[in-house]
Amino acid sequence: MGKLLLIFLSIGFYFCNAQDIFEVKGLCIAAPHADGVAEFVKFVDEELGPNGINTLALRVDFNYAYESRPELRGNNPLSKVQIKELVAVAKKHNINLIPQVNLFGHQSWAEKTNKLLEVYPQFDETPHVKIPVKYEWPNADGLYCKSYCPLHPEVHNVVFDLVDEIIAVFEAKAFHAGMDEVFYIADEKCPRCQGKDPAAIFANEVNKISRHLEMNSKRLWIWGDRLIDASTSGIGMWEASMNNTARAIDLIDKSVVICDWHYERALPTPALFALKGLDVIACPWKKPEVAREQVKMMYNFRENASPEMKKHFLGMMHTVWSSASEFIKSYHSQKAKEINPFTQEACFRAMLAAIKDLELIGENTN
């Protein structure tokens, strides 16, 4: 009896050890359109769950029929019933479902102003910068995406209504606020922000959102690029900051989870966040080799870290920057031997395979 118990304990140990290689094995993708919910639920049920995905960040933004702020509904938004279908399939596979609404930056895209500034133009950090008829980058205004002014006295009354409602309908434990690529911050023409420290403004906005969430025991996730110094790292203006926000890394709440996205190389910046006491996830996109190197890097960080730092390396989250339907169709249409090596679908498969390989090594070691 004792030997049999020992065998069962040993089997349980190395299955748990395999599962514990990364706390987060995730996917970040746009929420499906209203007519794509059934397709998405099937994808979660037949692909994501069985392949070990345990975290799903869904970029919702205005693609929901908000009741608290109906003026901010997008075209043909998801209904509460449809969201509950997503919640149900996530629960079935023990997937942590995290809704995302872009806060601060990404309030416009190309020739389109997004819903918040369309309905509430008074929140615009740079109202003097007009959305062009034909967008091009670079441009004289330095316009990539618009930002809302975080010091406007009414902006949080509006955005927190969205945050609270979307968390409630998703029955979520965490919320992703985006906050990447914020180029318009502390604008010299903003009557509230001019002359103020961009790092302090950015950190204060992160903390304001984080503390609002903590009142209901929810956790904030954000992208990490504004917290990395582009000059000292040599990373550049997109995956790091050249507009003086990087010092915010020392000012934000330690409870914030950092999604550290790097798409061209497996840069070792997760160590920076861990050293600052922040939980961090590495995020690839469309280069399989980068995904494989990031998996290996995060594993090595965990294996070689002190107990104090090890706990901060949470794992991996693949990012998708097409519609959910486009990704699903491409994922299914590309057989393994036919996959274009430089697509987000190939990268996602590479990330999953690299994690599985490490799990098998962990099992064999035990």
TrEMBL record:
Superkingdom:
Bacteria
GO molecular function (one): beta-N-acetylhexosaminidase activity
Q: Which keywords fit this entry according to its UniProt record?
A: Hydrolase
| Matches recorded under InterPro entries | GH (IPR017853), Glyco_hydro_20_cat (IPR015883), HEXDC-like (IPR038901)
Where along the sequence do coiled-coil regions lie? Answer: none
- Which Gene Ontology BP terms does the record give? carbohydrate metabolic process
Q: Where are the transmembrane segments?
A: none
- Domain Glycoside hydrolase family 20 catalytic: residue ranges: 77-323
* Similarity section: Belongs to the glycosyl hydrolase 20 family.
Q: What is this protein called?
A: Glycosyl hydrolase family 20
- Give the originating organism: Arenibacter echinorum
Upper classification of the source organism reads:
Bacteria, Pseudomonadati, Bacteroidota, Flavobacteriia, Flavobacteriales
